[in-house]
Amino acid sequence: MTKLKLILGFFTIIQLIASCTSQTKTENTDSLTADSTQIQKDTVTIVDENKIPELEQRMIDQGLVNIQTIDSTIMVELKYSTTDNFVHTDVYGDLTRAYMQQKPAEMLAKASKILQSKYPNYRLLVYDSSRPLTVQHKFWALLDTVPPIKRADFVANPAEGSIHNFGSAVDLTVYDLTTQKPLDMGTKYDYFGDLAYPIYEEQMLKEGRLTKEQIANRLVLRNAMEKAGYMRIDSEWWHFNALSRAKAKELYKIIE
C-alpha cells in the first residue's frame, strides 16, 4: 500500500510540472504574439495616394485646369519631372499632370481634335505646360555661359516672365499609337541649336541636316496647333503660345 502511494505521489508531481511548463509556454507565446503585433504596427507606413503634390495644389489654387480633364486623349510626359531634360535634373518633383489656364487648355483640346480628325492614330504628347517662376530662374542661371541676348532664344528671362509662367504656353510633340513612339522631328525636345528652329527648316533641308519627313512631321504638329489658335515661335519646333506675353500678364497671375 505504501509503495502504491509513493507511485501515485510521483505521478502527481510529474503532472504538476507538466502543467506549469505548458502554462509558461502559453504565456511566452502570448507575449511573443503581442510583441510581434506591436512590431508590425510600428513598421506600417500609410501612404495617401490621393495626396496632391504641393506644386500641383498651387496651380489648382490659381484656377489652372488639368488638361486631361478637358481631353483625356492628350498624352502627358512632363520632362521636367524626370532627368531627361537639358538640366538633367528633376525640377518638378511629384508633379505628373499638365495644367494650363482654362482658355489655353480648351484651345489645346481643339488642336487635339483637329489632329485626330486627319490622323486617327496620332495624339498630342505634352512635355511641359505651366511652369513656376522659381523654375524659370533655375533655367536662366544654368545657361549663364550664354550671353543674355542669345540665352533668351532658349529660355525666357525670368525678369520678364515666360508665357509658361502664366499657364498659357505648351511644349509638345505628336505621338504615333501605331509605332508607339513620338514622330521624328529631327531633334530631341530641348535641343539648343539651329536644327530646332522652324525658320531654318528649308536651309537645314538643303544642307541635308533635316529630312523632308522630319519637316513634314513638324508641319503636322504646327498645322493642328495653329488652326486651334496657337502661335509658334522661331527657335523651338515644340513650343506654342496661346497668346502674347503682354496679354498673358494682363489676364493671369504669374505662377510663383
Automatic annotation (TrEMBL):
Keywords: Cell wall biogenesis/degradation, Dipeptidase, Hydrolase, Metal-binding, Metalloprotease, Protease, Zinc. Zn(2+) binds at residues 164, 171, 239. It is an enzyme of class 3 (hydrolase). The keyword Hydrolase applies. It catalyses: D-alanyl-D-alanine + H2O = 2 D-alanine. Its EC number is 3.4.13.22. GO terms for molecular function: D-Ala-D-Ala dipeptidase activity; metallopeptidase activity; zinc ion binding. The active site is at residue 236. Belongs to the peptidase M15D family. This is D-alanyl-D-alanine dipeptidase.
